[in-house]
Design brief:
Elements lengths: L1 H30 L17 H13 L8 H29 L12 H27 L2 H4 L10 H28 L9 H10 L4 H27 L5 H10 L3 E2 L2 E2 L8 E2 L2 E2 L21 H9 L5 H5 L1 H4 L6 H20 L3 H5 L3 H7 L20 H4 L7 H5 L6 H16 L4 H13 L38 E4 L2 H5 L1 H17 L3 E3 L9 H6 L2 H18 L3 E4 L2 H10 L8 E4 H10 L11 E5 L13 H8 L4 E4 L28 H10 L5 E4 L2 H17 L11 E4 H9 L9
The structure holds iron/sulfur cluster (SF4) (2 copies).
Length: 726
């Protein structure tokens, strides 16, 4: 017994020393990161203890996000709770080092505890089998890029599964032997251990005594070895993920969706009117990431859920959100001695490979043959992101991919002046004309021509503030005012508001671009300029309630303008139209015999959780049949326009809009409906591309019409003769 005690304690001391050393090292690495925003602290107004606890319960204890994928989710839940409850058996194992018949005080001999422990051991074993099947069926060896595990550390994952298997069988082995030697704490309940005991019983008491003594030590060694492996592998997420969830940037849509943050340097937003000399303008090196950024990297489970949903990855681009996080993490760990070195002399004394990693450029073409000679993140990776939010939405540990991608873009744009050439025209137009097409303010009311009623324009009657009886300021947006197809939507919404008797006004020449594309491409200075101008205008006219037709305008005005002092109640036209129909202020009476598939805009759906209203509007039209695409709602596939991608060439892989249009057309619809002008432009182009693939004449009309929900409603509310024409 004394040998068992000494060996058990010695193993524990050694393993815990190794673990403590590693944890201290990782802690030093994370805290060497830049300060994060003050809102990250648990005591801040933006992060009440209640919201943190709520997130921990939902994401960690109940594993809400993992359960979106039923089978792997249930397997993970079983493994998680299995391990939590098996901690009780670890306590029993340590007690047994000193007393062979040790039992936990009060509850340690109760049959239900023995039953629960054995059940959780079997549940854990079952989850290992499920995980093994999932990994085997999804192996990159056969599926290639289609596997969500493509690029993950596969050997380490199999090793961890093997270790979990070892934890369970060694536990049951020594418990079975304990039953036969008479030192087992439970008389009843531990049915699996009893089954093992029956197998071991014929070996006799002496053999069972040896198995008990050796078994408890082997079980302990396996658990300690597993602990050491965890803190040295991606499975460190067992410890980092709960922390990451607690410290995630919470928004109304969950974690890190909706608003982007301003550029932060040293924990405070950069003042672009008077920037400090040392202000960090985004992330140009791994050392520029905040400690929360490093924690994100250390939390990635390599599950590939993000990768499996990413529109860029799914259309053959080099961008995988998982690989972005993994590459940043691998670089941060390989560079750690350089990061943590006391001074330049200490850095100079480091081995050549570590110094080379330390001096590696963050964003530059990747050199597969000689990684340290190339960048960590390839520019094609950085510029492929549409900021669609699918990755953030899926990530079970609340990693903030978009924030990191945009922060790296910010450095490229603001410091290096490096971004795709095609976007330069759009940025120049925003700067000089206030819209991406460079049409200027004088073109902003062209859409209103030809309507059979007068569109009320702010200032036309000499007013300096919005009159009291104005219910909504109708924010038309650049696309709504200047793009041919989007103008149809604007006219339709104006007509419907007019018909419903909603009192509204438009700003006309007073509008300028919200700055969404500028912010998402990384040109924060330009965004701040445009946004400040709009906030000043909106505040000056006394706007309180704003209706918009563009998902991007909606997101920017509702979620980002508060950062600049613009606080408004912003409503998307789908929500307002749905409400007007429900209130009886609009009555769709003319049937429309049409099968319609609705495309969820990322900035309406995932980023702002507006899923039902557009469907309610379509459903209110008599005769329509709504068919859903396989990827809809929260899992909708991007149209390819977000993240300023609308203004960049798409030369790698398949075009995202073509992929999405093909999916929409596969539902055999008469109409494809959307509720964002950018989606409509992209899907219309996509339909034409699919038609061309099918051999259609380029001059022919598209085989399927893509239109806004407002235009569909207008057709039902008004006879066709009054419907705006293209
Ligand atoms: S935001 Fe969308 S495009 Fe960008 S990495 Fe995530 S899933 Fe991919
Ligand atoms: S970033 Fe999140 S979703 Fe993607 S692989 Fe890592 S843990 Fe999974």
């Amino acid at each position: 017994m004394i040998v068992r005690t000494i060996l058990g304690l010695a193993m524990t001391v050694v393993a815990l020393a190794v673990v403590a050393r590693r944890v201290a090292y990782l802690y030093r690495l994370a805290t060497a990161g830049q300060p994060a925003e003050p809102e990250r602290s648990i005591g801040s107004a933006a992060r009440s203890l209640g919201s943190v606890l709520g997130a921990e319960v939902a994401e960690v204890l109940i594993q809400r996000k993992l359960l979106k994928w039923t089978v792997p989710g249930l397997a993970h839940l079983a493994a998680f709770w299995g391990f939590m409850l098996l901690l009780v058996t670890v306590i029993e194992g340590y007690g047994a080092l000193f007393w062979r018949d040790f039992a936990i005080p009060l509850i340690g001999r109760q049959a239900w505890l023995g039953w629960l422990e054995d059940t959780m051991a079997l549940a854990t074993l079952a989850s290992v089998v499920v995980f093994a099947i999932i990994r085997w069926r999804n192996t990159p060896a056969t599926l290639g890029r289609r596997s969500r595990f493509f690029g993950s550390h596969l050997d380490a994952a199999w090793l961890v599964l093997f270790m979990i298997f070892n934890v369970v069988w060694t536990l049951l082995l020594y418990r079975g032997a304990q039953i036969n030697t008479g030192y087992f704490p439970f008389e009843r309940g531990a049915y699996a251990s009893e089954a093992v005991a029956r197998v071991l019983e014929p070996l006799g008491e002496q053999a069972n005594t040896v198995i008990e003594h050796v078994g408890v030590l082997v079980a302990m060694a396996v658990i300690l070895g597993f602990l050491v492996l965890v803190v040295h592998s991606k499975h460190m997420h067992i410890f980092t993920a709960p922390l990451n969830v607690a410290l995630a940037r919470r928004t109304s849509s969950g974690a890190a969706l909706g608003a982007l943050q301003p550029v932060y340097s040293a924990g405070a937003p950069v003042d672009f009117e008077d920037p400090g000399e040392d202000d960090l303008m985004g992330r140009g090196s791994i050392a520029d990431f905040t400690w929360k950024g490093v924690l994100d990297m250390l939390s990635c489970t390599e599950c590939g859920r993000c990768q499996s949903q990413c529109p860029a990855w799914n259309t053959g681009k080099p961008l995988s959100p998982k690989l972005v996080v993994m590459n940043l993490r691998d670089h941060a760990l390989a560079r750690a001695p350089y990061t943590l070195a006391a001074d330049d002399d200490a850095r100079a004394a480091l081995p050549d490979p570590v110094r080379a990693e330390g001096e590696r450029v963050l964003v530059a073409p990747v050199d597969e043959a000689n990684p340290v000679a190339g960048g960590v993140i390839d520019p094609d990776v950085l510029w492929s992101c549409t900021t669609c939010g699918a990755c953030v939405n899926q990530c079970p540990v609340d990693i903030e991919h978009i924030d990191h991608i945009v922060d790296m873009r910010r450095y490229q744009v603001l410091v290096e002046g490096a971004f795709p050439d095609e976007a330069a025209v759009m940025l120049r137009n925003l700067e000089h004309a206030g819209d991406p097409w460079g049409r200027g303010a004088s073109a902003r009311l062209e859409w209103a021509g030809g309507l059979d009623f007068e569109v009320p324009v702010f200032g036309a009657g000499g007013e300096e503030r919005l009159p009291e009886d104005i219910e909504y300021l109708f924010w038309v947006g650049c696309a709504g005012a200047l793009d041919d197809k989007a103008q149809n939507t604007t006219r339709a919404v104006a007509t419907l508001l007019h018909q419903a008797g909603v009192r509204y006004m438009v700003l006309g020449e007073g509008e300028t671009c919200t700055g969404d594309a500028a912010r998402r491409i990384g040109h924060e200075f330009l965004f701040q300029m445009l946004a400040a101008q709009n906030v000043e205008t909106l505040n000056a006219v006394g706007a309180t309630r704003i209706v918009v037709t563009c998902a991007h305008c909606f997101n920017t005005i509702a979620n980002e303008y508060p950062q600049l002092g613009g606080h408004y109640e912003v409503v998307h036209h789908s929500t307002l139209l749905s409400r007007l129909v429900a209130e009886g202020r609009l009555t769709p009476i003319t049937p429309l015999d049409a099968t319609i598939t609705y495309h969820d805009a990322c900035y309406l759906g995932r980023h702002n959780q507006i899923f039902a209203p557009p469907r309610e509007v379509l459903g209110a039209v008599p005769g329509t049949r709504l068919v859903e695409m396989a990827r809809s709602g929260e899992r909708s596939f991007c149209c390819g326009a977000g993240g300023a991608r609308m203004w960049m060439d798409e030369s790698i892989g398949e075009r995202i809009n073509t992929n999405r249009a093909r999916e929409a057309m596969s539902t055999k619809p008469d109409l494809v409906a959307a509720a964002c002008p950018f989606c409509i432009v992209m899907l219309s182009d996509g339909v034409r591309a699919v038609d061309a693939e099918n051999g259609a004449d380029a001059a022919a009309d598209p085989s399927v019409e893509v239109t806004d929900i407002a235009e569909v409603l207008l057709r039902a509310v008004q006879p066709a003769a009054v419907t705006p024409t293209t």
